[in-house]
Structures are given as structure tokens and as C-alpha cells.
Fold each of these.
Amino acid sequence: MTVAPHESGSSSFDLDRLIHEPARLVLVSNLFVVDEADFVFLSRQTGLTAGNISSHMARLEDAGYVAIDKTIVGKRPRTTYSLTDDGRNAFVRYRRQVTDLFPVGDP
Amino acid sequence: MQGNLVDLERATYRASYLDGIIDLFVGGSLLWIGAIWVWAPDLGGLAGILPAVMSPMLVPVRKQIVEPRGGFVKWGESRRNWERRNLNAMVVIGIAILLLGIGTYAAVSAGPSTTDFLALISPGLIAFILAAMSIGIGFLIGHWRFFAYAAVLVVGGILTSAADASPGWPLLAAGLLVAGLGGVMLVRFIRSNPVVESP
């Protein structure tokens, strides 16, 4: 999505579509506020199904935004997700762009 | 991290303490200490045993019950530092309150030289001390219900002081309430959060 330049000086608002998708936005937001979280935690927090989380996380991993770690804890498999530095930077950038698009206080 | 992300982090952190296990731990400890005080005051030395034994079990029990149902999360550095700072503060405040309590008890036990006020509040003193600790826990995990538990302990302590009754009664009353609520919360948590396997 590209819109006209804004007062902030950005030349364009190329919103990151990978993050912009609602389910991924929720997942990335939740991962942004913690260091790492497992599948069960994200599922409880977001209400997304297992299939949804897996497919979105795979796309985020392909983009280098998310690191996925599969371990066994007490005979149970645990899949843990964390944002990479690229993922954190991308989310910060996305957030700044959206805030620029919709400044607080605008009617 | 700004604005709604702070709220999101806070809400997520608070949600991780809705399983009732800490309430059960606090309630069970209150019941134990209260029961010893009321029915076996000679065994007062045993009062601290249950909380001391249960404290190290809190983390493994939560890991066993909560993690398969609520999931695992490693909080960000700022939250971990915040937890560490507040736990340290709680320990320092707890020791200070305990010393104050021991000092008051010693002053009251010293006999006629003690003030009327100290003698008046001494039956409710342990309830006041535990109320302060409950406020500390409430502040630490961000749940107002621990402030309500503290209020019950304070009211119980005042009534106990007024009636010059055993210091164990307000602890038993608060312990029943806290453990009961904790039990209800745990059952609800287990029912509404079945064990989920990671893909």
C-alpha cells in the first residue's frame, strides 16, 4: 500500500504487508512485548487456531522476522517463537508508519 | 514500547496469573498459620513450615499445571528487571515489617511499661503484617484481588484486636476466602484451558 508523502518526511508509506495482515499483526504485536512465547501461549492470547498460527509463523520465519525453536519439554513438544532483530525493526517501522498515517488527535 | 503495547504487555502479564495457584498457596498458608495459632499455640514454631516448604514448589507446580494449558512465555528484559526489583523490595519490606512485629511483640511482652496502643493492636498484629505482604503480592502480579484479601485481613485484625481474641481467627477467615477463591479459579482455569500440544 503506497500513499502520499507525509509531514514526517517519509517519502512513502509502503506498509509491510507481511505484518499488516490482521492475524500476523496480532501475533507480531504479542511477540513484540515479550522475549519469546510458545505456541500454546500465543494460541490462548490471540484465539487463533493451530493451523493459523503455524502458517502465519512459517511466513514470518521465511521473511526472517521470526525465529522458531522446537524442543521437547517433559516428553511434550514445545514450539517457541521469538521476533528476530529484523522482525522487531520491521514492526517498529510499521508502527511508525501507521502512527504517521493516523496521528493521534486527528478527527 | 509505548501506548497500547504497554497495555498489551501488562494485560498479557496479568493474564498469566489467573490460574489461582498463588491464591491457593497464600490461602493455604493463612489457614495453616491461623489453625496453629488458634488450636495449637504451643506449636507456634511450626507456623512457618508450610509456607517455607511450599514456596520453592510454587514454580514447578505452575510449570506442571499452567504451562501445558496457558503456555510458556519469557518476559522482556524490562519486565524481568521490574519483577526482580519488586521481589527484592518485597523481601526488604517483609523483613522490616517482621522486625517491627517482633519488636512490638517484645515490647508488649515486656509488661507494664508498654503503651496501651501496642497492647491493643497486638492480637491483630500478625493479620496486619500478612495484609502488608498481600498488598505486596497484589502489586507484584498486578491483581487487585490481593488488595481485597489484605482488606479482609486488616478488618479481621481490627476485630481481633477489639475482641482481644486469638490472632489466628482473622487468618483462618481470610485463608478460607483466599483458598476458596483460588480453588474456584484453578478449576475454572483447568476446565476452560485443556492441555494443548504444540504443532
Amino acid sequence: MINFKIFKYANPAKFLNLCDKIFIYLLVSMIAFLFFGLYQGFFNSPEDYQQGNLVRIMYVHVPSAWMALMIYSSIAVASCIYLINKHLLANIFCKSASLIGASFTLIALVTGSIWGKPTWGTWWVWDARITSMLILFFLYLGHMTIFNFSENTTKSGQAAALLAILGFINIPIIKFSVDWWNTLHQPASVIKLSGPSIHSSMLIPLLITALGFFLYFLVVLIIRMRSEITNEKINNLSFTE
Amino acid sequence: MINNLFYVVSASSFTLLIMFLLIVFSLSSLKKREKIFNKISKNRKNE
């Protein structure tokens, strides 16, 4: 058994207590960062010398794609914790985060497609990056389907955890697809070893928006986890009747 | 120029719409479950 200090919050009551304390701060910061980041990105940041105003799609497309990858990675880690330590909260996290991750993946795919039409001349291309993102979307759908397939949370949780861990192989493929294959999608310009290659006037609004998206994830995650914990309580009450 | 703006507005509107729907859907699901839980707890207390 692996034991970390953070596991004391694996108790749903303690976790909900912590969430109650931080929720309002997360909500206020989320609104502030999203509003400020998007305002800066859409109205104050400069146009691109080649794409003009089209570059502003970046401020919703890139943070969504980052969130899609980050959420799936966190689901894979929580799945390992669930399989090893059998913490119910890890399973509830996976179940709650899946729909949020799927939504961000859908946003990344659709906004990418909207960006692709005027820049590449096509809505869709079977490019390595785009195809691997589509696979990620299907992995999220599969993960959610497994959870909804069975009423038994333990069994469905174990099957979903296995899928999440196996599907994690897709994450480095998405990240490095633009380096490994000759793709239409541009290579990384922010998260790379040599440092960001975009100007700070664009990078700062992008990072602020990304932080806003992350806070949004935390806010929705808390709501969904609270909902799942309530559902578990209902199931327990129904069983004892 | 106007054409480019159409793509930017479409992409950002779609993003904000999905984010809004997700938060509304999650909140309504929470409220519904809390209502059921309170109802069951109340019934059990009365028994």
C-alpha cells in the first residue's frame, strides 16, 4: 500500500469539508482569470503577421487541448491509485473528471477545425495530431460508457481504470506526434525544451486563460464530485432499506 | 477581415457555450441528487 499525506482527504467527509472552504475562492479566481485572459487575448494582444485576427482562436483552442491532456493524465494517475489503494474518492474523481475532459477534447477538436478551414483550406485532415486527439475523445467516451454500463461502482471503476491506464499511451503520442511525423498541424510553440517561441504579448494572455480554464476544471470537478458522493450516499441508503 | 472575425467568434462562442452547458448540467444533476437524498433521509427519520 502506498501512503501519502494527501490521502487523509480520501475520506469523502473531509474532502467535502475542504471543498466547502475553497470553493468560493476558486469560483471568484476562475471568473477573474477567464474574463481577464480572454479580454486580453481577444482585444489587447497583437494580430499575427500571417494569420491576422485568426490567431485569436489560439486563446480558446490551446488551453482546451492542454486541459484535455492534463485531465486524462490525472485520470490515469487516479486510476493507478484506485487499483492499488482502493480509495473510493479516486474512483469518484475519475468518474467526475471524464466528462469535463471529453468536453475540453471536443472544444479542442471543433475550434481546431474552425481554425483549420481558413488556414489550411479544410475543416478536417487525418493528420497525426488531430487523429490522436480524436482517439483521446473516443477514449473519454469509452471511459464514461464503462462507468454508466454497470450499477456496481467497484466493478465498473476497475474496468474504467484499466482503460484509462492503457489509453495513457496516447498522451505522449499526441504530444510528440508533430515531431515524429510530418504533420499539417504546427509543432509545439509553448511547452518545449528550448522555451516558448511566441512573443510575451501573446504568451501572457494565453497562460492567464489557461489558468482560468484550469480553475474552471476545479470548480466543475468539485460540483461533479459532490454530486457523485451524494449518489453513493443514495445507493447506500437504498441498499440498507 | 470580416470573414476571419466570423471564425474567431464561432470558435469562442462554441467554447463558452460548452463550458456554460457543462456547469449548468453538473449543477442541475447535483441539485437533483441532493433533493432525492434529503427526501430519503427525511423518510427514514419519520419511520
